[in-house]
From TrEMBL:
Organism: Microbacterium azadirachtae
Site feature: Raises pKa of active site His: D144
Gene Ontology MF term list: phosphoribosylglycinamide formyltransferase activity
Name of protein: Phosphoribosylglycinamide formyltransferase
Class of the enzyme per the UniProt entry, highest EC level: transferase
Gene for this chain: purN
Phylogenetic classification of the source organism: Bacteria, Bacillati, Actinomycetota, Actinomycetes, Micrococcales
Active-site residues (renumbered): H108
PROSITE patterns per the UniProt record, alphabetical: GART (PS00373)
Record key words, sorted: Purine biosynthesis, Transferase
EC number(s) reported in the record: 2.1.2.2
Length: 206
């Protein structure tokens, strides 16, 4: 059984979909802990499912590296096989990526490499794109630049707002995320070798 930690910043609607999927006894992965960088609304899903959670508040640390060191320490308590960034709106510091790579994946509301970053939906609209999409990628130490595991196009409709477009993208993200986690757990999707430039593996990796 693949053990999974999910990290969030927001409402956690994609997390919720993954929790619902994993509640099926036939699903080959189990969410063992949920973490956040703030008192995110989505932590309520952890409580509803009786899953442990932790918060490493971004504001409490002097630097990204200090925040990341505490996040890494929390993750090492649980030693998940896979870390899912599901709306975590912070870049992980290089050391944390190095410690867990390639076993960190991220969902993104655009068809990468188009529109990376924190405002993927807004940027697609601002560019006048006629279609955008959803992607699930392996996290590397760039911004949404890791290998693409799954992606699908979503058309932009006349009159779309950032919110209406994002709400149409999210169900696609959920479907892709659940399928990717399932395939990783079943062994039919490999996350690949550790990137060579990420340093030596941490003892707390897999
Ligand atoms: C999702 O669309 C996710 O892809 C996005 O935040 C949303 C979280 O929604 N992440 C990023 O944009 C990361 N660059 P949720 O909290 O309702 O699941």
């Amino acid at each position: 059984m693949l053990t999974v930690a999910v990290l969030i910043s927001g409402t956690g609607s994609n997390l919720r979909a993954l929790l619902d999927a994993a509640a099926d006894p036939g699903f080959p992965a189990r969410i063992i802990v949920i973490g956040a960088d703030r008192e995110a609304d989505g932590l309520a899903h952890a409580e509803a499912f009786g899953i442990p959670s932790f918060v490493v508040p971004w504001e409490a640390f002097e630097s990204r590296e200090a925040w990341g060191a505490e996040l890494d320490a929390q993750l090492k308590v649980w030693r998940p096989d896979l870390i899912v960034l599901s709306g975590l709106m912070r870049l992980l510091p290089r050391d944390v990526v190095a410690a867990w790579a390639p076993n960190i994946i991220n969902t993104h509301p655009a068809f990468l490499p188009e529109f990376p970053g924190a405002h993927g939906v807004r940027d697609a609209l601002a560019a006048g794109a006629s279609e955008t999409g959803a992607s699930v990628i392996v996290v590397d130490d760039g911004v949404d630049s890791g290998p693409i595991l799954a992606q699908e196009r979503v058309p932009v409709q006349q009159g779309d707002t950032e919110s209406s477009l994002h709400e149409r993208i999210k169900p696609v993200e959920r479907r892709l995320l659940i399928d990717v986690v399932r395939r990783i757990a079943e062994g039919s999707l490999e996350l690949g070798a550790r990137p060579h430039d990420l340093g030596s593996p941490s003892a707390a990796g897999r």
